[in-house]
Amino acid sequence: MFEQPIVMLDFETTGLSPAMGDRITEVAALRICGGRIVERYVSLVNCNVRVPAFITHLTGISQAMVDRAPPVAEVVPQLLDFIGADALSAHNASFDNKFLQAESERLNLAPGHTQLICSLKLSRRVFPQLGSYKLGAIAASLGLRFNGNAHRAEADAEVSANLLLHIGAHLRKTYSIAAIEPHLFASVNRLSAAKVPAFLEKHSLPQG
To answer: Can you give the C-alpha Rg of the chain in angstroms?
Structure first.
């Protein structure tokens, strides 16, 4: 499972929108391969911006922490090198991807990931019976534990990575799918929940 690597990404930020001037304060990128996390890139980030008090309250990331952190001009190139051309995933991927794109563009760089996979969308389609798809809620529903504090990048990325592995294991068991690869997840992302079972049945191994 996961013979083709997927990088799970999580940003902590000063707000919700890079278009409104919000910036990244912390990043975690975890490479999943062969059914486990095999490599990590984790860093606080100094974008020379003020960290709002409510963000410090939510994440525990203070102004002093980001002021001492490596500059964004150092972190983002390292992050892009780490991701390379692997598939990229995040929980609510559109959020993290728009910050990745915005921070890259500021440095005249371009991300090279080949596919974008949203573990939130996957969860909605594979587990349609759940009441909430926020990361903390779905982790509790599926018995996935946080190592560290929620709303810190590495802890959130690790739970998201384990969620992706859980989804992969569920699909292998339920549909007898031999290869759980990025393109399969990307295809499921694009479907409505009602169409997912029939799509996955087509990828099942023949019985007997």
So the answer is: 17
Token output for 140 = 């509790």
> Phi, psi at residue 131, to the nearest 5°?
-80, -30
Strands 6-13 and 24-33 come out as antiparallel
Model-level pTM?
0.95
**Domain ranges, residue 36:** 6-202
The pair of three-digit structure tokens given for residue 99, joined into one six-digit string: 């910050």
- Token reading at 205: 């191994």
- Tokens 């991701």 belong to which residue? 83
Our count of domains for the chain comes to: 1
- Tell me the DSSP string of 46-65: B-S----HHHHHHH---HHH
CATH code, domain carrying 23: 3.30.420.10
Q: Each residue of 104-140: pLDDT tens digit? A: 999 999 999 989 999 999 999 999 999 999 999 999 9
How far, in Å, CA of 180 to CA of 5, rounded?
11
In a domain, 147, yes or no: yes
User: Is there a domain that residue 207 lies in?
Assistant: no
Distance of CA 126 to the CA centre of its chain: 17
Please indicate, yes or no, if residue 75 is contained in any of the structural domains. Answer: yes
Residues composing the chain: 208
For residue 1, the 8-state DSSP code is -
Asked whether residue 208 is assigned to any structural domain, the reply reads no
Half-sphere exposure of 109 (CA within 13 A, CB side): 22
